[in-house]
Each structure stands twice: as structure tokens, then as C-alpha cells.
Amino acid sequence: MLQPELPVRTIKSLISGILILMSSTAPGEALDATSLDEDIQSLKQDVIALNRDLFILEEELLYPANTRLAVFVSLDVGEFFKLDSVQLKVDDKVVSSYLYTQREVDALHRGGIQRLYMGNLKAGEHELVAIYTGMGPNDRDYRRGASLVINKSLGAKYVELKIVDNPSSEQPDFSIREWE
Hints:
This protein is α+β, with helices and mostly antiparallel strands. Helix content is 32%, strand content 41%. It has 2 domains: 5-62; 68-178, Immunoglobulin-like (Sandwich).
């Protein structure tokens, strides 16, 4: 877990770097162009590192590990289903709806995984329901759902919504599974 002092320390080092840069030349004296470029690149790297640290800190504050639920979408289809949208319900409450572009569907076909939802969930039993819409076999509108009851305990819970072609039935299979 990140300490809150880390971003403050980084900010202080950035400010001191800027002050050193400003005070390193006497008034009217020109800065060496290479030295200035190196200092600017160094400051850029410090800002990038600070941004990363702040993002991690924000994630930990908003979604503590003991109550975190993350839901991901993956897809291994081609013939029997063309994904259009996914809606996720947790305990009969819609927590996420996502409409996919063609580029996003192509990325999922190439093995990508999309984080559909991240939120907090108290310990206990909860029902997840995913509703998929798209084009099914023979270019017909297709709407299908899948559900899973999870037992949320302390610690993060990761769930995958998976869409796979089933060649034997010539239909897509929709499943929800917990990651270990």
C-alpha cells in the first residue's frame, strides 16, 4: 500500500528541481540548451512517475482491496455471435452498461480483456447478472443472459464474463466465472 507521504515527497522534489533550475543561472546569463533539455526531460519523467503514483493511490482509496469487485469481459467468438453491448447487474441493480464499437470488438477478438466494472461490494452473497446483446446465428438479433451467485469475503474478487463459440450447437455460450 502506498504511503500518502510518497506523492507529497515527489511534489517537493519536483518543486526543488524547478527552483534549482531557476537559480542555477545568474540574471542575464543564458542557459546551455543541452543542459536545459536534460533538466526538462528529467522533470517530465518525475511528473509521469508522480501521475502513476497518484493513480495507484486513488485506486486504493476509492476501491479498498477488502471490498473490491472487478468484472472483466473476454470473447472468443467469430461465427455465431457479434457483440453489441453488455449490461451488468449486481443484486438487481444495473451497475454498468457498455456499447461496443467495432474497434473494441476487434480488440476483444484478438485476445483483449475489457474491465467492464470496478466497485465496492460488502461481504456476503451477491447475484451477478450479465445481459448480452448482438447479432446471433443467421444475422438475427440476439439477447442472452448469464448469472452467477458469488460469496464475497474479505479481499478482492475478480469475475470474468466470457463469450465462446460452441461449434456443436452452433450457438454462443455465455458464462460467468470467478478468477482464483
